[in-house]
Amino acid sequence: METIKIKTPNTTYPINALLLKRWSALSFSEKQIEETDLLCIFEAASWAASSMNEQPWEYHYAYRGTPSFEKMWNCLLEGNKSWSKNASVLILSLARKNLHRNNLPNRHALYDTGAANTNLMLQAAAQDIYGHQMGGFDMDKTKSEFSISDDYEIACFICLGYLDTPEKLEDKFRVREIIPRKRKNLQEFVKKW
Q: Which domains does the chain have, with CATH numbers?
């Protein structure tokens, strides 16, 4: 698919091909992800590093075409709705705020959940499944709709699916899907002391 060529970056230094393959896709096909393939993706998330092995992440998911998918989708902000409706799966990523062993605050909970989400996204890419993590959602509505207790912080929503052509997207999203990826130059954020 031409989009893969466009989105594969030229890096200054060589990095693992799987890292080059992952990007936040917007165009998803009608093909559904098999449950066993999805469980492999969650298995990868489970092996993320976490402070004191707390593993504070929790995932809730729903397949397109189900009432739960619609319920999740309705929590997204308008900017995410037009393209995410075609994803095979929507996932709600949560972080448990307190430590299991003593219920004290876990200041690394969101950091660790982000690491698990990265593992999830990389495993998906390894399986030719693409995703997009979204911070654009209604926090209060999500907490209410899914009865999320104060013990949890909502990290993000994630959509997963197989790639489709950018032509099916609205103009503003089509443009985002076909422009090459860019990152800051290393000198902007790496400092040698």
A: 24-179 (3.40.109.10)
